[in-house]
Amino acid sequence: MRMKEDHMKNGQLKAGYNVQISTEKQIIVNYSIHQTSNDLTTLKFHLNQLKTLYGEEQFQQIENITADAGYGSCENYEYLEEQDITAYIKYPSFDQERKCKNSRTKQQNLKDRQKLYYNEVEDYYVCPMGQRMTKVGEKQTKSTTGYIQQISLYEAQRCEGCPLRGSCHSARGNRRIERSHQLEGYRLAIRERLLSEPGIIQRKRRSIEVEPVFGHIKSNRNFKRFTMRGLKMVDLEFGLHALAHNMRKMAA
Asked: Transposase DDE domain location, by residue (predicted)?
């Protein structure tokens, strides 16, 4: 996988592990080791492991979960909804949307499909030129975890000769967009939740909850590389570091 520490700056691939932790007041209550660089696919496994460790009754007491945009996916939002857990998890474009909204020199991006008007009753979008983009089909996508997502396809009708063609899209033919209406519903709910007063508090809390734990283990304890090999031994090695961190934290 590609590491954050890339001294050669060439995106070279290295053997490594993805460590996930859950914390409460900077105490590590669960950790899991993954052989994937993508955080999206780690959340369900991590929480199911937490349920196994502490039992169904304790797991049901979890009211909310806060995580960064790396975990924001339709699959994870749906899973947390099924578990009756409130998700304070950004979707990938949340910060960019906020940055553009607060910018004094905003420039309209006609290629941004999020800004297209959608008529929910008649199920069509409106392109920047004002013409309808009607539904032309559907497809399914399947993630590496087996999660199936329904995608709707929409297409404009007369893009040839349009004065906005160059700034609207660069593909041949008419403009087409793909939308998961389930994900769009989650995005609207998540945006409203994150911008609420409890959401702002939760976002601030994440920066002083999980990040300092990783910072302490990596910088103060100088643990930046695993000395063991194999998933089982790496799991054991990090477990010892997590135990040492918790003991030091509780003794402070």
From this structure: 126-251
